[in-house]
Amino acid sequence: MKIRGLLVAAVAFAVLAGILYWSDHRKPSAEAANPAEAAPSILKLDENSITKLELKKRDASDIVLAKDGADWKITEPKPLAADQSTVSSVLSTLASLNSERLVEEKGSDLQRYGLEHPSLEVDITEKDNKSQRLLLGDDTPTGSAAYVELADDPRVFTIASYHKTSLDKTLNDLRDKRLLTVSPDKVSRLEITGSNGDIEFGRNKDEWQILKPKPMRADSYVVSGLVSKLTDARMDLSASDSAAQEADSAFAKGTAVATVNVPDEASTQQLQVRKSKDLYYAKSSVVEGAYKINSDLGEAVNKKIDDFRNKKLFDFGYSEPSKLEIHSGSKTSSLMRGGQDWWDNGKKMDEDGVSSLISNLRDLSADKFVDSGFVTPEIDVTVTDNDGKTIEKVLISKSGSDYIAKRDNDPVLYQLASSSVNELKKSLDGIKPANPAQKPGK
Fold it and tell me: Which of 76, 80, 373, 379 could form a disulfide with 399 if both were Cys (CB 3.0 to 4.6 A apart)?
């Protein structure tokens, strides 16, 4: 009996020892954690106090980002402009990095978590030269989290996999991929040199003007669209080495389309655009290499001067004029706005008729620009807008089956379709006094 008892005790001891050994040496998973202790935060930093980041990966060159004024720049492995929004996302993740759980108060075997040789190390430097080193190890068995620790802190945590993705960035992820790095709202001048001649634009607030080949009204919508296309152009850094070489070759052999100069506060950035077969390629003064660009950008820089000109006769747009003076043949109207009503020589005028006239004036637009054909005007229109600060005067004369118009103090001649002028005359004939209000019951 004593021997039997000793055998049972020995077996029980062996089973217990095996369980303790397995428990001590198995790799913990996020799902098997003891939920008794709340998951603590890992980092609590002031995002604005961070001045330097170093990302060190196992099989890649170290990436160093440094704050330069309000912006971030890549300084290693070579100087490059950084994508500010991507860097901001990394900073935001680091500044308030929370764990999913605390795995161990004191990591006894970091190799189990991939932390002995971490896949990523993020070194953080703040204004006061205080530094933190965050180490990222292996993913948990389920793949929904990753093991992390802070250097000089024995605790091992897990973080959500999306946090790891936010931090684990490549050099191409962090690079500014814009071909021109100037901000669109900072562009106040633009120069295009190409087969269509030299064109220069200047901006005053939100209004663009053509400066070369001579001062002319510009279509601000078209010029602003060109600026947007230029500043939105991106490099495709996902292309293979062979595709990059093909782009370089295609640019070198391509036909020159245009060279665009974009002066900013510090310097002038340049974009050369060429066409090879049906594709457009560009080379920027900001970055190395040639890149394929969208055809809409290639076509936008290849427009003729008339494509950028303002074809509208009036600039008052969708604002409501305060006064209209129109002479057409023997008919003359002098309309003034008082509050919401229109008046002509003390008579309140029909609102619909005046609205139709204003709409037709607003829509007057040139089919093309001409050099001659303007004779004695048939229609004389003066529009007062902006509380009397803006006065636009337009004269319209008949020329064959079409009409030729000119703005006051502007030598440009606008050819108008006869249909648009006929609509204007029709709306002018439709101007009439408002119907008197009927008495109740009538």
Answer: 373
d(CA 249, CA 247): 5
Q: What DSSP character marks residue 330?
A: T
Domain formed by 37-174, architecture: Sandwich (2.60)
Distance, CA of 121 to CA of 112 (rounded, Å) = 17
Residue (of 392, 383, 388, 381) closest to 428 by Cα position: 381
Domain ranges, ordered by start, for the chain: 37-174, 184-308, 323-429
Segments of the chain with pLDDT less than 70: 1-38, 437-442
Supply the Cα-derived Rg of the chain in whole angstroms.
Answer: 36
| 439 C-beta neighbours (distance < 10 Å), count | 6
Which sign does the torsion angle of CA 305, 373, 403, 376 carry?
A: positive
Tokens for 76, please give them: 């290693």
- Note the pLDDT of residue 295: 96
> Up-side HSE of residue 206: CA atoms within 13 Å toward CB?
1
What count of Cα atoms within 13 Å lies in the side-chain half-sphere of residue 33?
23
Q: pLDDT value at position 289?
A: 93
Buried b (16+ CB within 10 A) or exposed e, 29-57: ebeebeeeeeeeebbebeeeebbbbbbbb
Residue 283 structure tokens: 């080379």
**The amino acid at 411:** P
CA distance 273 to 291: 10
pLDDT at 14: 52
- In terms of Cα–Cα distance, which of 310, 300, 301, 302 is closest to 369? 310
Sign of the alpha-carbon torsion through 31, 33, 35, 38: negative
Distance CA 159, CA 99 (A): 5
Q: How far is CA 349 from CA 329, 385, 429, in A?
A: 21, 19, 13
Distances (CA, A) of 441 to 50, 437, 438: 78, 12, 8
Over residues 50-94, the pLDDT tens digits come to 999 999 998 899 999 999 998 999 999 999 999 999 999 999 999
CA distance 388 to 341: 17
pLDDT at 6: 45
Find out whether 259 and 270 touch, Cβ atoms under 8 Å: yes
Sign (positive or negative) of CA dihedral 405, 407, 413, 416: negative
Q: How many Cα atoms sit within 13 Å of 214 on the Cβ side?
A: 3
